[in-house]
Specification:
The chain is built from 9 helices and 6 strands, in the order E-H-E-E-H-E-H-H-H-H-E-H-E-H-H. By secondary structure, the protein is of the alpha/beta class. Strands 2-1-3-4-5-6 form a 6-stranded parallel β-sheet, sandwiched between helices. Strand 5, helix 7 and strand 6 form a beta-alpha-beta unit. Helix 3 packs across helix 4 and helix 3 packs antiparallel against helix 5. The model has no long low-confidence stretch (mean pLDDT 94).
């Protein structure tokens, strides 16, 4: 079993370490998008076509845009196929202004709203890449790609997510298709890696040949 993992905006590949530890030695390709330095990962998106893709938040959108149909199954952990218009563009623009004025303060506030205050030191931030990621949130739309997927999909989410609200998750994935936790903020892979891994492994086993 091979898993490809892509993190969300404002984080780095280190969010996956607790979950990977629960995957029983499975092969993994961890893609880091460069927002925060200090995480070891592969930047090579050339993974096996029968891999299980796991994305957190923006990582799901990135997988849809860059992965095509090159995976056996897709796991969305608090992810989406487009961010705007589910969330007003003005909120993302405000974040961009915050990065321009005060990157460290802006990111600390964002991490706090996610449930992961103090995620990384200010010196680790790549402000240019953070701005680019915000442009992705505004501009990228993979709704048609998501709808055309022929592989099975698992969606994990929380009821107290302030970044990807429950109504947004339900609108994208369908309420009946989402596995919910009451709490966990916007960082399920950090707060509840065992729970995530349990569902990921069950899903992976269900789609294995």
């Amino acid at each position: 079993m091979h898993f490809v993992l892509v993190h969300g905006w404002g984080f780095n590949a280190s969010i996956w370490a607790p979950l990977i530890a629960q995957l029983g030695g499975a092969e993994t390709t961890v893609v880091d998008l460069g927002f925060v330095e200090g995480a070891e990962s592969s930047v090579d998106p050339d993974w096996p076509e029968d891999a299980i893709a796991i994305g957190h938040s923006l990582g799901v959108l990135w997988l849809l845009k860059n992965g095509g149909a090159r995976f056996r199954g897709l796991v969305s952990i608090q992810g989406f196929d487009r961010y705007c218009p589910h969330v007003p563009k003005s909120r993302v623009v405000a974040l961009k202004r915050g990065i321009d004025r005060d990157p460290a303060g802006t990111m600390e506030a964002f991490w706090g709203s996610c449930g992961a205050p103090g995620f990384a030191p200010a010196a680790a931030l790549n402000a240019d890449r953070l701005r680019e990621g915000l442009d992705w949130l505004i501009q990228w739309d993979a709704e048609d790609i998501r709808k055309s997927l022929r592989c099975p999909v698992l969606s994990l989410a929380t009821r107290d997510d302030l970044i990807v609200p429950p109504a947004m998750t339900e609108a994208i994935w369908g309420e009946e298709n989402v596995v919910w936790r009451a709490e966990g903020g916007h960082v399920l892979p950090i707060k509840f890696p065992e729970w995530c891994a349990k569902h990921v492994v069950e899903f992976a086993n269900s789609v294995s040949p």
